Amino acid sequence: MHPAPSVIIFTTLSGLGFGLLFWLGIGLPPVTGWVAFVFFAIAFALAAGGLMVSTFHLGHPERALKAFTQWRSSWLSREGICAVAALATMGLYAIGAVFLGATWRPVGIIGAVLSLGTVFTTSMIYAQLRSVPRWNSWLTPALFLSLGLSGGALLAGQTAIAAPLLAVAATVQLAAWQKGDTALQRSGSTMASATGLGGIGEVRAFEPPHTGTNYLLREFVHVVGRRHSRRLRVIAFALAFVVPLLLLFLPFSHALAGLAALAHLAGVACSRWLFFAEAEHVVGLYYGKRQPAPGAQPIS
Amino acid sequence: MTTLPDKTDRKMGLVIDLDTCVGCHACVISCKGWNTENYGAPLSDQDPYGSDPSGTFLNRVHSYEVQPEQGAAQLIHFPKSCLHCDDAPCVTVCPTGASYKRVEDGIVLVNESDCIGCGLCAWACPYGAREMDAAEGVMKKCTLCVDRIYNENLPEEDRVPACVRTCPAGARHFGDLGDPDSDVSRLSAERGGMDLMPEQGTKPVNKYLPPRPKDRIEDQIDVLAPLLEPIAADTGGFIGWLDKALSRLPGGTI
């Protein structure tokens, strides 16, 4: 898939922002007044800023309100509703905490659940797609949720919670990469099934439909070099998990905590780039752009 | 509404004969011609006369080489457009309700005035049947020429999709695949009409007819070969002398 910057920035920032809102909603840390203002400003900037960026890739952003109507079937619609509900509820809670010094716990808990729900619905937009086997797995919501929760805990300064959650997210990340690498092969979609010609013999793309490129190739057939992706995985893993974990075990200081959060943010952005760039859409099979699954061809 | 209907009254669709298609791309051109000047936003081209042209098409013809275990490779031309799936994943993912499947005939359409151009329906389609128009920012797809097939201003023979009407080889057939007695259903049953990527669970309405088994040219040569063996055992005259003279030269056979 084409790694569009708007979608990478959106999912990275808003995942972190809603993760922070979750912890603020359940009262970790139990902040009020000016301290609360700073925490909520960061959380809203990340969550709402990410949502704003996500509208940049729309062909008609002026019609975006229509996207709230199809919650019965569409995960994208559910995400929009969940995000607005989470921001409104947490906004109300923030007003109480910042200006009135009050902690309306039930409001905070509802906001926390909606915040987590937003991260979940975002992940399901990708996880629901059978056409992208790498995403079509329970590991996609697991990855988004564990990253949101651990990154949020890191930003909320909850070191005791952040460390184990980072370890969980790191494990899910490794599992997602490992399972993802064989997902296309396991999906059963091959050039043979795509063309229905596999019964005759080995299928090879002889000539594409046009001499030039097209929307499908630009959007769905992004091929990353294997060595390139291995290096980026190491960088993403080190920045998102290893560096923050090491910094968490050093004596606490705001500078080190800030550094840990920044490293985590950069690592997650790198991981999210790979999430898109490495994802193989099955339409690539029609263009002969995907290596057919070994052994899936009737004749080798 | 982007929930799919439980069932549609009819299942209008195409049967595409891979045995007959000659790969002339006439269906591609007639599709672009009709759909750029009728229903919905035009199908734009970017840099059409420059060095890097590209554009929106609702129908594209691929060509594949298939190598059987024995015998010669076959070249198969493969037109691909929307399959108007019964279980269309492009419809359910739409957040605005712009994408829908019609109850009366099963055609999958986009209401362009509701489309926000998020592109998720194109992501959900395993076949690459939907393309975002770069000029209009809305999703374009095959309408099964919904503005032709019911159009009483057209002569009756023209009330079929433009691709079907134009195909010079008769490789494209249009009809109701929900009716088992329709011409297209019987054709598909007779010829073993198949679904593309059935493992994706989309239940396509359009069917593809696989190429018929090819004649084996090697077998034909074997039948005629004995008749083509040289029958002159004894050669004389000038040709006989020349044959012997050449054979005696260094490197010649005796």
TrEMBL record, chain A:
PANTHER family the UniProt entry points to: ANAEROBIC DIMETHYL SULFOXIDE REDUCTASE CHAIN YNFH
Pfam families: DmsC
Protein name: DMSO reductase anchor subunit
Residue ranges crossing the lipid bilayer per the database entry: 7-28, 34-59, 80-101, 107-126, 161-177, 232-250
GO terms, biological process: anaerobic electron transport chain
Record keywords, A-Z: Membrane, Transmembrane, Transmembrane helix
Entry's Gene Ontology cellular component terms: dimethyl sulfoxide reductase complex; plasma membrane
Record-level Gene Ontology MF annotations: dimethyl sulfoxide reductase activity
Claim: Transmembrane helix is one of the keywords in the record: yes
From TrEMBL, chain B:
GO molecular function: 4 iron, 4 sulfur cluster binding; metal ion binding
Ranges where the 4Fe-4S ferredoxin-type domain occurs: 12-42, 73-105, 106-135
SUPFAM superfamilies registered for this protein in UniProt: 4Fe-4S ferredoxins
Top-level division of the source organism's lineage: Bacteria
Keyword Iron found: yes
Keywords tagged on the record: 4Fe-4S, Iron, Iron-sulfur, Metal-binding
Family matches, as PANTHER family: PROTEIN NRFC (PTHR43177), PROTEIN NRFC HOMOLOG (PTHR43177:SF3)
Name of this chain's protein: Fe-S-cluster-containing dehydrogenase component
The species this protein was found in: Cribrihabitans marinus
